[in-house]
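Example 3.2
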Amino acid sequence: MNLRDIKKDIEYFIGEFIDDCSLFIALNPKKGSEEVSGIIDEGVDLYNSLKDKINHPAEGAKRAYYDGIRREMLEKLDTLSEKLSSIISKAE
């Protein structure tokens, strides 16, 4: 896995998550849109944080560092997805 692939994965996965949030807001404008907007903000913060870590790597083993970033992205996206799912279930 090279650096370019990791950058593309960050853009794709976080972008898709934000698109899902935006779709919920568009389809349900009066149900939890403020909460979902907060989740979008968290997604944007995650994106900025990961891109900063990618662009300024720590010293040491690069492969382990980038694998850690990928793991962090997936774990935090899972957490954000769970938050979104709980809001969606409340809205129904």
